[in-house]
C-alpha cells in the first residue's frame, strides 16, 4: 500500500470530518506516523478489530468501523430478508468513542435495510452475548478493546449463538469488507426507524438467569449481609450489573466510588486490567481501611474478573486468572457433589494454555475435561455442540486470562456471574469457618503445587504481527529435547493440528481448530506454550510448572525461561 498516496486521499477527501482533517494535517511530514496509519489496513480477524484510536486505515475511527459494519451488512443481506428482519444487536463499553462507534454501526446497518437494536447505555460483553439469543438476532456487535490501554478501542462480532463469530463466517464478512476500497464512501442513517432500543426487561431477565446459578443459598443467607467485600468496576460497564446481582442475593459489597464513573481516560489506573494488583490498588486500600477480606475488579467490558485475597500474614495478594479459575472450579464441583446434583455427563472446558491443574481436579471428581484453542468462542462452540448432541452437561469454562463462565445464558466470558460466584464462595467458606486463601493452600497440598506464568514480549511497528508469527513459525522446525532438565515428551503444532512424540517419532492428528501455536508437553505434567496474540502485538509465552512448593517452582521457572528465550532467539534466525 502506498501510504503517502493513501494519506493524501484521506486528507483531501471532502467527506473526512473536521477532527480527522486536523489530526492528519498535524502529522504532515512525519513519515513514520504516516506509514503506521496508512501503510497497512487494520486487520479484521476472528476476534474482530482492535487498534489505537485515530484517523487512518490502520486505526480505530468511524470510517474503519463503518467499513467493517458495511461488510457485516452485506453478509447479513446475503442470508436473506428474514436475517435482515432479525437484525443485529449492538452494545458498547466506557472507552473513548465507544458510544459514537456503536451509533454509527447501527446507522450503517439501518442504511442497508437491516434492523439494529442498540443499548441505550453501556452494557458488558456477557449481556451483549445474552442479548443476541434473547432477541433472536442474526449477529451482535460489541464496541470494546477489553482490558487494553485507554488509547485503544475495538469491534467484536458475535454469531447467532451468542458466541464470537465463527472463523468460517468471519472469513465471509472479511471478504465483503475487503471489497470496500473507499473507506469514506460508506453511508449511515443514525435516525432510521430501523434502529430500535433494546427492551429494558432484558436487564432484569439477565439478572434472574444469573440468580438461578447460585450454589450456596444457606451460606449466603447466613453470611452475605455481613460480608466485607470490596468491588471496583475500574470505570467500566460492570458497575450496574455486578452490584445488582450481589444486592439481589443479599451479599454486602463496598464499592470504590471513585472508580464507578464512566471515565474514558481510566485516570485512576495505569491500565484497566484487573489481573494486575496495581489496578486493584484503590480497592485494596479501601479493603484495608474497612478490614475486608477480598477485593474484586472487572475490566471495561466486564468480561474479566480480577481478585485479591488476604494471605496468612494479612497482606493482600493478587490471584492469577489460573488461581481464580481453580478456586471456582473446585467450589462448583464441591457444592454440586455435596448437594448430590452432579450431572453424570458433566464436563468442564478450558483453553489449552490454562493451568494443567484443572485435570487433577476434574479427574478427582470424575468430570470430563476438554481443551480448546485460546478464545472463548471455542468454549461457546462446545456448549452449542453439547446442547445439540446431549453428550455432556456443561458445568464451567475458563481461561487463564481471567475469563470464566458458569451457565449457558452467555457464550463468552462473564465477569458478572464470576463476581457472583466468587462472592458466594467467600460466604460458603466463611460459613464453614475457613478462608478462601486457606482453601487454595489445601488444593495445592492435595493436588501438588503448580506455578502458572504468562510472559508477553512486546512488538511494535507496522509489521509487528508478521514478525511475531514468523518467530512461532521458526519454532516448528526446532525439536528441543528438554528445558532446563524437564524433558520434552511431545510437541503440539496447532497450525497443523499435529502432535509429535519425540522419543517414538509417532505423529497423531488433533481434533481441534487450527491456530498458530507451538506447545511443549514436559515431564511431570508441566508445559510451555508459545503463541502470538490475536488482538495486540504481543508474543505470549505460557509456563505451567509442577513442583513440590512455590519456592522450587520459581527457581525452576527461572531456568526454564532462560532455555525458552534461547530457543526463541534460534527461531528468529
Provide an overview of this structure.
- By secondary structure, this protein is an alpha/beta fold.
- The strands form 4 sheets. Strands 16, 17, 18, 19, 20, 21, 22 and 23 form an 8-stranded antiparallel β-sheet that branches. Strands 1-5-4-2-3-6 form a 6-stranded mixed β-sheet, with helices on both faces. Strands 8-7-9-10-11 form a 5-stranded mixed β-sheet.
- α13 (321-338) packs parallel to α14 (357-365) and α18 (464-475) packs across α19.
Helix-strand layout with pairing:
Blueprint: H1 3-11, H2 18-25, H3 31-38, E1 49-52, H4 62-78, H5 81-86, E2 88-92, H6 98-111, E3 116-118, H7 125-134, E4 139-143, E5 152-158, H8 167-178, E6 195-197, H9 201-211, H10 217-223, E7 229-232, H11 239-249, E8 254-255, H12 281-290, E9 294-298, E10 305-310, E11 316-318, H13 321-338, E12 346-351, H14 357-365, E13 368-372, H15 376-389, E14 393-399, E15 403-405, H16 415-431, H17 436-447, E16 449-458, H18 464-475, E17 482-483, E18 486-493, E19 498-501, E20 507-509, E21 518-522, E22 527-532, E23 538-547, H19 550-572
Parallel strand pairs: 2-3, 2-4, 3-6, 7-8, 7-9, 12-13, 12-14
Antiparallel strand pairs: 1-5, 4-5, 9-10, 10-11, 14-15, 16-23, 17-18, 18-19, 18-21, 19-20, 21-22, 22-23
Helix pairs in contact: 1-3, 4-6, 4-8, 9-11, 10-16, 11-16, 13-14, 13-17, 18-19
Amino acid at each position: 500500500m502506498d501510504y503517502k498516496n493513501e494519506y493524501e486521499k484521506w486528507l483531501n477527501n471532502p467527506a473526512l470530518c473536521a477532527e480527522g482533517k486536523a489530526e492528519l494535517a498535524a502529522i504532515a511530514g512525519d513519515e513514520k506516523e504516516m506509514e503506521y496509519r496508512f501503510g497497512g489496513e487494520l486487520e479484521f480477524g476472528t476476534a474482530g478489530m482492535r487498534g489505537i484510536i485515530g484517523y487512518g486505515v490502520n486505526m480505530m475511527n468511524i470510517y474503519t468501523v463503518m467499513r467493517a459494519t458495511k461488510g457485516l451488512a452485506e453478509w447479513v443481506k446475503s442470508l436473506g430478508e428474514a436475517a435482515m428482519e432479525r437484525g443485529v444487536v449492538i452494545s458498547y463499553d466506557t472507552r473513548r468513542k465507544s458510544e459514537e462507534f456503536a451509533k454509527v454501526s447501527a446507522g450503517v446497518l439501518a442504511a442497508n435495510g437491516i434492523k439494529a437494536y442498540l443499548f441505550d447505555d453501556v452494557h458488558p460483553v456477557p449481556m451483549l452475548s445474552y442479548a443476541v439469543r434473547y432477541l433472536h438476532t442474526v449477529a451482535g456487535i460489541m464496541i470494546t478493546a477489553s482490558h487494553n490501554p485507554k488509547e485503544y478501542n475495538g469491534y467484536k462480532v458475535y454469531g447467532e449463538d451468542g458466541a464470537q463469530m465463527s472463523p468460517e463466517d468471519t472469513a465471509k464478512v472479511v471478504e465483503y469488507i475487503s471489497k470496500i476500497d473507499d473507506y469514506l464512501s460508506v453511508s449511515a442513517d443514525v435516525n432510521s426507524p430501523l434502529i430500535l432500543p433494546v427492551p429494558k426487561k432484558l436487564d432484569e431477565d439477565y439478572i434472574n438467569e444469573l440468580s438461578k446459578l447460585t450454589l450456596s443459598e444457606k451460606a449466603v443467607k447466613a453470611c452475605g449481609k455481613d460480608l466485607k467485600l470490596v468491588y471496583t468496576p475500574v470505570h467500566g460497564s460492570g458497575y450496574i450489573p455486578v452490584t445488582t446481582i450481589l444486592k439481589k442475593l443479599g451479599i454486602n459489597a463496598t464499592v470504590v466510588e471513585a472508580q464507578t464513573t464512566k471515565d474514558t481516560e481510566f485516570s485512576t489506573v495505569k491500565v484497566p486490567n484487573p489481573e494486575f494488583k496495581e489496578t486493584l490498588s484503590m480497592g485494596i486500600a479501601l479493603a484495608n481501611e474497612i478490614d475486608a477480606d477480598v477485593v474484586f475488579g472487572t475490566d471495561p467490558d466486564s468480561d474479566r474478573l480480577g481478585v485479591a485475597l488476604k494471605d496468612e500474614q494479612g497482606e493482600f495478594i493478587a490471584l492469577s486468572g489460573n488461581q481464580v479459575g481453580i478456586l471456582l472450579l473446585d467450589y462448583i464441583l464441591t457444592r454440586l457433589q455435596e448437594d448430590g446434583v452432579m450431572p453424570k455427563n458433566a464436563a468442564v472446558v478450558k483453553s489449552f494454555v490454562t493451568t494443567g491443574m484443572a485435570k487433577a481436579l476434574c479427574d478427582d471428581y470424575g468430570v470430563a475435561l476438554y481443551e480448546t484453542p485460546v478464545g472463548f468462542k471455542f468454549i461457546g462452540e462446545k456448549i452449542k455442540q453439547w446442547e445439540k448432541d446431549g453428550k455432556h452437561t456443561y458445568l464451567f469454562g475458563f481461561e487463564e486470562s481471567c475469563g470464566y463462565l458458569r451457565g449457558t445464558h452467555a457464550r463468552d466470558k462473564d465477569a458478572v456471574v464470576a463476581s457472583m460466584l466468587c462472592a458466594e464462595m467467600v460466604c460458603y467458606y466463611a460459613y464453614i469457618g475457613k478462608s478462601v486463601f486457606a482453601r487454595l493452600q489445601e488444593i495445592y497440598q492435595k493436588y501438588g503445587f503448580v506455578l502458572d506464568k504468562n510472559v508477553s514480549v512486546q512488538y511494535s511497528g507496522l509489521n509487528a504481527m508478521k514478525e511475531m508469527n514468523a518467530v512461532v513459525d521458526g519454532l516448528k522446525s526446532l525439536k528441543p529435547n528438554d528445558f532446563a532438565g524437564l524433558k520434552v515428551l511431545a510437541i503440539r503444532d496447532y497450525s497443523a493440528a499435529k502432535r509429535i512424540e519425540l522419543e517414538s517419532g509417532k505423529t497423531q492428528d488433533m481434533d481441534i481448530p487450527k491456530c498458530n501455536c507451538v506447545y511443549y508437553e514436559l515431564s511431570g505434567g508441566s508445559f510451555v506454550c508459545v503463541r502470538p496474540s490475536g488482538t495486540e502485538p504481543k508474543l505470549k509465552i505460557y509456563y505451567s510448572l509442577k513442583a513440590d512448593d512455590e519456592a522450587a517452582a520459581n527457581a525452576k521457572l527461572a531456568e526454564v525461561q532462560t532455555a525458552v528465550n534461547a530457543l526463541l532467539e534460534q527461531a528468529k534466525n
